[in-house]
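Hey all, sorry for the wall of text incoming. These are the two entities for the joint prediction.
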Amino acid sequence: MIEIKNISKSYDDISALGNLTINMREGEVFGLVGTNGAGKSTLLRIMAGVLKADCGEVIIDGEQVYDNPLAKELLYMIPDDPYYFPNATANEMMNYYGSVYKNFDYDKFQYLLQNFNLSGNRKIATFSKGMRKQLAILLGISSNTKYLFCDETFDGLDPVMRQAAKMLFAREMDERGLTPILTSHNLRELEDICDHVGLLHKGGVLLSKDLVDMKLNIQKVQVVYKSVEEQRKAESTMNILIHEQRGKVHVYTVRMSLAELEISFEHVETLLFESLPLTLEEIFISETEVVGYDIKNIIQG
Amino acid sequence: MTLKTSSKVKLSPQRALIKNRTWLVSLLSLIAFIAYLISYVLVLHNDTTIGSQPGASIENYMGLTSGYSYFVTTIFAVLIGLTSYNYLYKAKTVDFYLSQPVSKMKYFVQVYLNGLGIYSIITGISYVVMALIGASFAGGLKVILLHGLISYLGNLVYFLAIFSICVLAQTISGTNFISVMMALFLLLAELVIRFTLGAMASEYFATFSDWNGRKSILLTSSLDIVSSPIYNQLMMLQQVKLQEFHSIFIPCVIKNFLIAVVAFVLAFFAYKYRKEEYSGKPIVFRFVETVLKVIVGVVAGIWGGYLMSLFWDGNYATSNVVIVIGIILTVVIICAIAEIVFHLDVKAFKRKAWQMPIIAVVSMVVIFSIKYDVIGYDHYIPKESDVEDCAIALTYSGITYVTEKNGTHTTSNGDYAERYMHIDDVKSFEQIAKIGMDTSCAIEKGEWEYLPEGISKESLTSENSVYTVELIYRMKNGKNVYRTVNIPCDVSDDIMNPVIGSDEYKEAAFHLSNIEALRANAKGKGKDTLLIVDTGNMTSVSESTIDELIECYRKDLKTYNFSVGKNESILGYIEYDNATENYDYLNSSDFTWTVPVFESFSNTIAFLKEKGIYNEDAMDAPAIENINQMRVTTSNVMVDGSYIDEISYDVLDEAEQLEILEKIVPENMSCGYDFWDSSNKYEPLEVYIETKDNNYYFTFRTGNVPDCLKEPFANVIGH
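and here's what came out:
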């Protein structure tokens, strides 16, 4: 488990993180979302032990992470722009990482290289940006660390590669309990992979919840009432977050379970009552509008 | 999942580092190949002594006294040092290295050792190959290897010092450009500061000594803080020709080692405490910005004020205003530039403007403290009880090549005096020193109130009115104090005689201190010859002849003192020479001993006569009946600040010739300048006499010009 307690970090007069506390459980995919400058990369770098927090602590499986090789053996960080030695090939980077991470799996790496159609003997400098990111993911997976930090790694991958990477993560999680921590400024990127999502804004956590919990407690319905009175009756029993009306069609986003919602409409006469799927974006917007933030711009990237 | 078998190569951290620095290793190998091997082969090819001293070739070329080897080592150290930690300057590489499961400080040490390893291996291989090449020319592989090993170790310590400083520069900087500037600053700051203080002292101190670069700015101090290995090495190379090698080299190595240790420790802590997010920021630690700005600002301010004053043609007092203006302008510009560089932002020029007046004031304090001699440099006379012994030599000294067994040589009378003269009558010496210092202050700074009693201002305003001498006090704490002073030519003999008449002075001034050692070193290699300079007669002599000559000369010196040198004519010079066929003063056993023979040197004269080398005719004037021509001319006369055209007078009248013959004395020939060689002894007139068989040159003692010449040379006599 990764425990982040009261982390603050400033760059001279600029506060990047302010008293941030968040926990990341093992065996889950944790997604960190926020706009540029929210503090995602800073947080990830602190978690990887690259930066030292001004105050607070980051503990990985009971070990402080900063300048602690024992803790760093448990993690592998993939930055948004990975670094490779000048004129190095994939195999040379493999050899280097093999000397650094004692559990590095050379065979797995070669297998993955083949499957992803990357050449082990070609200079990485000739790779495209996407290929460099793919290679970084393969090296990270092959390092066999418990935690994998990916800083906007999926941004910039084509849909096929993105899907392949997600499948890879899923398999690693299943086979050896990998715990990926992903950051992105695009919620849609994280939607179908993350189990837990945290929203960062201006150095603080606005929201941190399990996706399942979020989806259970927020519903979206489309309703056409028989009469205005029926509308009033229904609305009086609902905890409405968002209400949109297009003609006679009412679309509600409500903070209620599905069962509770159905009970609310049991005695309401409607011409149309339909439950709609909620996107992660809509859930976030709903959640954060409650606390006064208009985050449409934040999460739509 | 089917796993393909792959070849895996685990890399040790050092191997990984080497792989990542392949370009550096290749470049350094190329430099080593050219600088060490190719150049060495070329040197050996032209080395004619290689057969006799196989170790000498590698010692001379790459040895501990070879400036070239230290230059190459400096290049290595800077290249390795300034490329070791520049991964700290980009967030990308910081993320790469610091996210890995390696302790931050362990990685620091690994990289440091990697740099040391690269140098050690490349240079070690080069030295071994050089030894093999040297041995192939002249044999003596073991000797060459031993010399090579010693050189290698000496250079290694020097490398460590430069390398550690470059590493320190890297760890306190945030960009490549700034780290290079920082390294230059750390390596050269001491040189620049010492040079600045030396330049100001040279300009404003009346008794400042710049004798072969040996300066003492502070009076005496047992504290010798050295921060720059480059400065340390330059001083060692400069002083090694004067003193025993081990007494200079070992302290130099110790200082370099200490510099290396201190720089490493500072770099270690700078690396530990630097914030990784500062990659890309010019200076990582705020206080370093302030230190840099103050040092650079003060030094620049001093130069700005000084240089502006050079263009000022006003008086001493108003030049102070110009100095202040120069300092202020320079400090403002430098501080602005510094802030722009620190923040990489032109608009940052006015940041911390409050530091400018402080820096300007410090510059003013330094320069005016020197200008007005706040520390009392120009009147400093050490306590007699603190002085071990002293030396004195005239500054305008001829070049004297004197070689010794260990290969060191002196190049001037001043060097020789520093090496061999140990006058222990400190009290008398200090009397002379006081007169000299007071006279210098009077002449150079207009402090006429310090003029010694009995000396008039008018007597000091003409040319050749003073002896300019170097004084050395050897202090009991091991330090030397140097001063250059002006002693009036009409100083009392009673003051000068105790020192100039002392055995310690004479042994050194007449180059007798090491004559036995030189002769022992030259034994069997060259041929002893004796030359009487005034006649040009050179003759080969036996070893026993020279023994006797030296004995006679020493006897005559017993009666020599300042009065003798000032008043007696020099009859001629004897030049004893022991030279090999190749006659190379600097690198062989060849040497020359040239000394004057005064009228009162009866033992020496008798000895020369006995040996048939003394030519009476050359000393005495020819008989009038033998004279074919007599002409009197002026010789380099300066009147009222400018040289006058030559005046020539043919003496045709026999009565005038007789009058002249009665008063002429042998013309003074130069054999190295000392108190005896005062041109005040003689008039600036040359008497040329041609006989059937010979030509002669004479002159007149000061104030003893024949009446017949007073009118034609009225403008010249007495100048």
